[in-house]
Amino acid sequence: MLKFCAMVILFAIAGGTATAQTKIFNGENLKGWECDPVELADHWKVNLDGYLYGENPDMKGSILWTTKKYFDFMLELEYKALSEDYDTGVFLHGDSHQVQIGISRSLKKDMTGCIYAPQDNKGAYPGQTDKVADFHMEGEWNHLMIIVEGKRIQTYLNAEPFVDYEGINFIEEGPIGLQLHSGVHMAVQFKNIKIAEL
Q: Is 106:117 a contact under the CB 8 Å cutoff?
């Protein structure tokens, strides 16, 4: 059902021509990704199940970036938190705007699917929704879809439309990043990370 919904959305935004999706995580190694800072690269690995596994027992922060930069895209992934407290997310064009996954350090509540963009000067989370508690499945696999077109960012959690936000100081190109926030020991898994460039 989730795959069908994603294809319907992709068909619509591509003007009637579905753009081919490609996997940006191969399930075998971290080819095409790089950690910042590089000395914390051991935070990230591929586990025996073929999932991208992130954990920071030292409670330091790191970001796993794609080596490729992207303009407009539709990104899909599945994630599962393995710790009770976690603060992760997806950076969209470098460290500009981020889609939150888990508990915001500043707001102390689950802001999954919301847009973190303090540089827009509209508050830390200018793109929010009140649907998080109803659709975020704690301790289970969740499906997140993010669509970036120009400065517009749309998020969908488990096929439910979440946020439709127009960025302000949103750069037009950059890598995609997965975060482990500092200050909390967390563990999270990702799988089926794929992208369609628009």
A: no
Over residues 184-195, the pLDDT tens digits come to: 999 999 999 999
The 3-state DSSP composition of the chain as helix, strand, coil percent (nearest 5) reads 15, 40, 45
Q: Residue 135: which residues within 8 A CB-CB, separation 6 or more?
A: 113, 157, 158, 160, 162
Domains of the chain, CATH where assigned = 2-197 (2.60.120.560)
Query: Amino acid identity, residue 192?
Result: N
CB 107 within 8 A of CB 91: no
Widest pairwise Cα distance in the chain: 48
Report pLDDT digits (tens) over 111-137: 999 999 999 999 999 999 999 999 999
Q: Which two tokens stand for residue 105?
A: 């350090």
Question: Phi and psi (nearest 5°) for 13?
Answer: -75, -15
| 137 CB-side CA count, 13 A | 12
Q: Whole-prediction pTM value? A: 0.91
Contact between 34 and 64 under an 8 Å Cβ cutoff? The reply is yes
User: In this structure, what DSSP letter does residue 40 have?
Assistant: G
Q: Which amino acid is at 123?
A: G
Residue of 136, 38, 146, 121 whose CA lies nearest to 86: 136
